[in-house]
Amino acid sequence: xxxxxxxxxxxxxxxxxGLTVAVMILVNEWAGVAGLPAWxxxxxxxxxxxxxxxxxxxxxxxxxxxxxxxxxxxxLAQAGRRGALLAVGERTAALIVTGxxxxxxxxxxxxxxxxxxxxxxFLGIFLVWGSVRGGxxxxxxxxxxxxxxxxxxxxxxxxxxxxHWWGILGLIGWAYGLAALLFIFASPGGRxxxxxxxMAACVAWFAWGAPYVGGGGHATHTALVLAGLAAxxxxxxxxxxxxxxxxxxxxxxxxxLLLAVGLSLRNHFPLSKINATPSWGLACAGAxxxxxxxxxxxxxxxxxxxxxxxxxxAARHPLLAYLxxxxxxAVLALLQAQxxxxxxxxxxxxxxxxxxxxxxxxLLRLLLRAGVRLKL
Length: 376
What we know:
Elements: H1 11-30, H2 56-106, H3 114-129, E1 130-131, H4 140-156, H5 167-185, H6 191-213, H7 216-236, H8 244-264, H9 278-299, H10 302-316, H11 318-334, H12 346-369, E2 373-374
Antiparallel strand pairs: 1-2
Helix pairs in contact: 1-2, 1-9, 1-10, 1-11, 1-12, 2-3, 2-5, 2-7, 3-4, 3-11, 5-7, 6-7, 7-8, 7-9, 8-9, 10-11, 10-12, 11-12
């Protein structure tokens, strides 16, 4: 998601977000490469383990939480609680709708032209939530046309669109929306305690509510966003009234505590990205916070500035960067174009992923220079 333009930027968060988006694009491309070692793949759902690949999605959820206070505080100051709720509702809906169209394209039955259908959906999404020339969202006639296009595409989907697993963006949307509600209604001094209590409630729901009602994955994903929110308030909110050195120590303690609690829960919930267990979620939240604390001093130094020259566009426009590979994939499928077989395995496949990432970053820069934006 893109940060609100008036919200202050934190170089460390931008650096972590840019790296996470880049790794996300890489591992998604490497998923189709044969012969990779196990540590470069997702761990099976029933294995009590995880690789760095299993940490990419939770890292992004954690960063969503870290970015949330800056965007919402600016929105609250500009438009009040009602305006903030409307913005959160629209952003949540946009993420859920986009996720549902993407996951239904993946699940389409044989014989249905899913690539063309998905490209039509991306066009509709852009008309509703996009902008050109770097300005405000498109005029309402265009937005209305985009909504009509999305409704028409949903109507022609064979058998009717289904929820399935919501898609990555849908999962992010639910977690973001729930965490944002907590932030909006909490007092400034109560946001960290409520975020921690909310994380405990998410674990409790996974253990005792989800087996009967469902929503266990949403609970774990929300806990990840709340962890990022708590870390951001501790480290960057002037209303929290902690000196910088004390705030860093508190965040460091929180990181180790989350990691320890997550690993201790393995006796009850095996580490599993596929099943979105609390042990996996909390351990990844703690690890991501520790990585952020290690990266933060580098953000304003030469290594961080060099990385941001390459990854800055993806850091500032992560949703557009995330969607571009799907757009490229749909176009290639529509043209029935495939990678050469020699690039489908081993080191050649790994190199293909790196080249693909570079191509996405170049295309992203060209689109941004042309003024293309997604207002989410």
